[in-house]
Amino acid sequence: MGRGVGVYCEACGWERQFIFGRGILSSCKDECLESLKSGEFGNLAQRMADELASDEIKLQREQTTFKCAHCGELVSGEFMTAQHAGAHEMPVVFISCEDVCPACGQPMAWVRGIPIEGDAVEYLRKMRKKGCPKCGGKLKESTIIWD
Ligand SMILES: [Zn+2]
Ligand SMILES: [Zn+2]
Predict the structure, then answer these.
(1) What is the mean pLDDT of the chain?
(2) How far is the CA of 104 from the centre of ligand 1 (A)?
(3) Which of its termini does the chain have fewer beta carbons within 10 Å around, N or C?
C-alpha cells in the first residue's frame, strides 16, 4: 500500500511526483544485484553485493522521497532492503539518491526517512504558484494510490 502526491502540466506533460510509505515495492533478485554491483546504491552496497549473491537473500526495492537537509528540496530516490530469508537479523537498507541537491547544489545530506506529507503538499503548492518550469503552463494536482 502506498501513496503519493504530484503535479502535472497539461500543456507539455511535465510532471513531478512524491511517494510516501511503501511506494511501488518490488522484489527482485538479479536485477537488484546488478544495481547494487553498479554502485547505484553506494560503495558499501557495491562491496556487499557478492556476499548478497547467496540464495538466502531477499532483496526489495522501494521508491521513496528524500528531503535535503540544507534547503528542504524534495528529491525522489530509492531504498534497497536486503534481508536474509528466515533469519532474525535486521535488514540492511541501501539508499539511492542524487549526490548533490538539484536546488541548492550542496551535497545531499538527506534527512533519513520519509518526509511528512505536509512537506510535499507545501512544496507542490509553491510549485503550482510558479507554474510549469518547462513551459510556464498551469500545473494540475495528481494523487497516486496503489495497493
Ligand atoms: Zn538543497
Ligand atoms: Zn508545461
Answers:
(1) 81
(2) 4
(3) C
Q: Can you tell me the distance from the alpha carbon of 118 to that of 96, in angstroms, rounded to the nearest whole number?
A: 23
Query: Distance, CA 82 to ligand 2 centroid (Å)?
Result: 39
Per the confidence metrics, is the pTM higher than 0.85?
Answer: no
pLDDT given at position 88: 65
Q: What would the grid cell of residue 78 be?
A: 530509492
pLDDT at 96: 83
Neighbours of 132 (CB within 10 A): 22
Query: What are the tens digits of pLDDT across the range 15-44?
Result: 988 877 655 667 777 888 888 889 888 888
Cα of 16 from ligand 2 centre, angstroms: 11
87-117 pLDDT, tens per residue? 667 777 788 888 888 899 988 766 555 556 7
DSSP 51-116: GGGSTTEEEEEEEEEEEETTT--EEEEEEEEEEETT--SPPEEEEE--SB-TTT-SB--EESS---
Map out the domains of the chain as residue ranges. 2-146
φ, ψ for residue 79, nearest 5 deg: -105, 145
